[in-house]
């Protein structure tokens, strides 16, 4: 478990971008993490342990959601279906049309 602070920081930002999103309205999550790491740059291992645990938590929640989708456990599958159809269309060089929403 001898991870460096830089590696933990990168992994946490990757997890936030992947599982929470990169959109402008969600950027405050990444901004908060950047601010905390800069402010506590020389803090002890307790903060690094918390950051590593939060990274693990974010990835685990995302993985759990994927498992629920794959087992069709009473969740809205419309996003999953769109993603699978998009991948299938992309594999043959096509794109799905944008859905009209009044």
Number of strands: 0
Q: What's the N-to-C terminus distance? A: 52 Å
Task: Provide the succession of SSEs.
Answer: HHHH
Helical fraction equals 55-70%
Strand content: under 5%
Task: Count up the helices.
Answer: 4
User: What's the main sheet like?
Assistant: none
What radius of gyration results from the CA coordinates?
18 Å
Sequence stretches where pLDDT stays below 50 over 5 or more residues = none
Q: Calculate the mean pLDDT score and round it.
A: 81
Structural class determined from secondary elements: mainly alpha
The coarse silhouette is elongated
Question: What would a concise description of this structure say?
Answer:
The chain has four helices and no strands. It has 102 residues and is mainly α. It is elongated, with a radius of gyration of 18 Å.
Describe the structure.
This protein has 102 residues and is an all-alpha fold. The protein contains 4 helices and no strands.
């Amino acid at each position: 478990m001898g991870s460096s602070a830089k590696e933990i920081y990168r992994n946490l930002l990757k997890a936030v971008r992947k599982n929470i999103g990169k959109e402008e309205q969600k950027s405050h999550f990444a901004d908060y993490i950047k601010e905390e790491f800069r402010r506590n740059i020389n803090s002890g291992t307790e903060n690094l342990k918390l950051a590593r645990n939060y990274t693990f938590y974010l990835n685990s929640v995302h993985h759990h959601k994927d498992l629920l989708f794959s087992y069709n456990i009473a969740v809205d599958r419309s996003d999953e279906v769109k993603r699978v159809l998009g991948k299938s269309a992309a594999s043959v060089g096509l794109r799905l049309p944008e859905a009209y929403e009044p």
